[in-house]
Amino acid sequence: MKNVSKHKKELLENGFTILPNIYSSDEIEKISACIDEIDTSKSTVRKSVDLFAIRQFLKENPEINNLIFTKKLKSILQKFAGNNFFVVKSIYFDKPQNSNWYVPYHQDLTISVDKKTELEGFNYWTVKQNQFAVQPPLQILENIITVRIHLDKTDENNGALRVIPKSHLKKTYKPQNIDWKTESETICDVEKGGIMLMKPLLLHSSKRTTNDKQRRVIHIEFSNQELPKELNWAEKLVLDDF
Predict the structure, then answer these.
(1) Is residue 235 part of a domain?
(2) How far is it, in rounded angstroms, from Cα 233 to Cα 237?
(3) What angle is formed at CA 58 by the lines to CA 28 and CA 33, rounded to 5 degrees?
(4) Could you tell me the CATH number of the domain that includes residue 68?
(5) Is residue 133 part of a domain?
(6) What is the rounded distance in angstroms from the CA atom of residue 192 to the CA atom of residue 194?
(7) How many structural domains is the chain composed of?
(8) Cβ atoms of residues 102 and 208 within 8 Å
(9) Per-residue pLDDT tens over the stretch 41-92
(10) CA–CA distances in Å: residue 160 to residues 7, 61, 171, 201, 209
């Protein structure tokens, strides 16, 4: 991969960076075919006219792991994250062609864990589709790197992420406090087979689809930080040779 230092700088300073041509068309087709075979009756699946989403995506569908974690992706992860990182969350998002699904500006402030327990600094517990989520101390969120794998060409017309560069540096940043006199918005166009790396604290949003084109994304979060002994990551996955 060219310009590693440039992309590392973008991720550190702006909170995101986009890398094209990480997967070939053939690799994308194999991933797509595997997804088409997934049992959509599971409790981790949410399917409607506006959204098809699968939580605990890699944990529930381990047969897809070898297709996703190619040598090329592993090489990129090692360059950006080092050798001690592991998967802590995975979600598949499919925004259909006629979706009116709109996501307002927000930060990704929760992690997935195996149970609920009282711990200092861990707040706002929720349960989604039998999955415990909690907002942890900021240093845990700051340590996470998110990889978004794009199975379709994505632009402003079919739900490309809109982000506020550098907003991840402002810790917890409530959307209602965005000062548009000083902040700017960037639309993150990503070609089919490309990936976007981002920090969870980056403010991001997604508008409705207007061009009748599908937008499928595999969202995977990585960390190298263990949780307090009372808790475990719900989806911890250690990759081979990583």
Answers:
(1) no
(2) 9
(3) 30
(4) 2.60.120.620
(5) yes
(6) 6
(7) 1
(8) yes
(9) 888 877 776 678 899 999 999 999 999 999 999 999 999 988 899 999 999 9
(10) 19, 26, 24, 18, 9
